[in-house]
Amino acid sequence: MQVADNTVVQFNYTLKSEEGDTLDTNVGNTPLAYLHGHKGMLEGIEAALTGKNEGDSFSITLAPEDAYGERKDEMIQRVPVKHLHGAKNWKAGMMATVHTEQGERQVTVAKVGKFMADIDMNHPLAGLTLIFDLEVVSVREATEEEIAHGHAHGEGGHHH
Questions:
Q1: Domain that holds residue 77
Q2: Which positions ≥6 away from 126 have C-beta within 8 Å?
Q3: pLDDT by residue (tens digit) across 32-76?
Q4: Is residue 26 assigned to a domain?
Q5: Do 63 and 82 sit in the same domain of this protein?
Q6: Burial of 43 by CB count in 10 Å (0-12 exposed, 13-18 middle, 19+ buried)?
Q7: Angle 15-4-129 from CA coordinates, rounded to 5°
Q8: Which residues contact 79 (CB under 8 A, 6 or more apart)?
Q9: Is 59 a domain residue?
Q10: Domain co-membership, 49 together with 25
Q11: Where are the transmembrane segments (predicted)?
Q12: HSE-up of 132 (CA within 13 Å, CB side)?
């Protein structure tokens, strides 16, 4: 079966930097599952998977604007340390959670003082050209419930 809208796709990936360094992979673990055509995946990956078949393996390169966007300097903000959640002692490079008007958000601590911290609200992969090695493990028709919920259920997908 071919990858098309309203199919559930399970795939393995290895994410690499432009320099070839592995940044993340799920190879050796449960394949990632998503509902194709429902904006549950990076657009560039979804476009590359369209029309592929079970067993296909290939690589794609995504520019920042097709992946996690360009880095924006205005996304670095100064906040009171007491607003950082997830640890007691903060150091630059650590991930924290902050409460915003849009809900909880994961941020990177850029610099920390006694009372204030500079946090980077850019996605950690923003500004990077990324290489994805993809392997389509399985493709199946989505159930009516998955289509109604807008995501894949079961192994590698969402569990209710």
A1: 73-120
A2: 64, 68, 69, 70, 71, 72
A3: 999 999 998 999 999 999 999 999 999 999 999 999 999 999 999
A4: yes
A5: no
A6: exposed
A7: 25
A8: 98, 116, 117, 119
A9: yes
A10: yes
A11: none
A12: 23
- Reported pTM: 0.83
Residue written as tokens 């911290």?
Answer: 117
What are the start-end ranges of the H helices in the chain? Answer: 43-49, 144-149
Report whether pLDDT(137) > 80. yes
Q: What CA–CA distance (Å, rounded) separates 119 from 76?
A: 5
Q: How far apart are CA 149 and CA 146, in angstroms?
A: 5
Contact present, 25 and 13 (Cβ < 8 Å): yes
- Distance of alpha carbon 50 from alpha carbon 65, whole angstroms: 20
pLDDT band at 159 (very low <50, low <70, confident <90, very high): low
Dihedral sign for Cα atoms in the order 32, 34, 40, 43: positive
Q: Does residue 1 belong to any structural domain of this protein?
A: no
